[in-house]
């Protein structure tokens, strides 16, 4: 049983940075943790994922080199450091947790809004 609560969203100018955090209740050390985003009128989009042991990460091409996903299993959190933000990064950002042996994400946060002004 895992609950995810996201924070850190806000309004930032293009070129700026934000750090999103997802706090989990219940252990997530055995879960892959991902970040997704959804802009109004568009489908949910994959952003980044980090493996259960933090040993592997994957990023969408659109954010590669600008965003960094990390996790702190001791604090039971997963973060998304977003640098060089662009207006097209504007979206509602969600964190999600997936069991090691699951193909689908099992838990989702409520989302936090990121708005990047040009």
Task: Please write out the topology.
Blueprint (H helix, E strand, L loop, with lengths): L2 E5 L2 E4 L4 E8 L5 E8 L6 E6 L6 E3 L7 E6 L4 E6 L8 E9 L7 E2 L3 E6 L1
Parallel strand pairs: 2-11
Antiparallel strand pairs: 1-3, 3-8, 4-5, 4-9, 5-6, 7-8, 9-10, 9-11
Features:
118 residues, mainly beta, seven-stranded mixed β-sheet
Please characterize this protein's 3D structure:
- The protein is mainly β.
- It has no helices and 11 strands.
- The strands form 2 sheets. Strands 2, 4, 5, 6, 9, 10 and 11 form a 7-stranded mixed β-sheet that branches. Strands 1-3-8-7 form a 4-stranded antiparallel β-sheet, with no helix packed on it.
- β9 (91-99) and β10 (107-108) form a beta hairpin.
- The protein is globular.
- It starts with a strand and ends with a strand.
- The relative contact order is 0.32.
- The mean pLDDT is 94.
């Amino acid at each position: 049983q895992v609950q995810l609560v996201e924070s850190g969203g806000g309004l930032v100018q293009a070129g700026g940075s934000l750090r999103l955090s997802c706090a989990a209740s219940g252990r997530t050390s055995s879960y892959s943790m991902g970040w997704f985003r959804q802009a109004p009128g568009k489908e949910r989009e994959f952003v980044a994922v980090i493996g259960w042991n933090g040993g592997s990460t994957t990023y969408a091409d659109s954010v590669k080199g600008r965003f960094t996903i990390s996790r702190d299993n001791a604090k039971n959190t997963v973060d998304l450091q977003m640098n060089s933000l662009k207006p097209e990064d504007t979206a509602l950002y969600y964190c999600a947790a997936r069991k090691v042996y699951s193909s689908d994400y099992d838990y989702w946060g409520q989302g936090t809004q990121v708005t990047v002004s040009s």
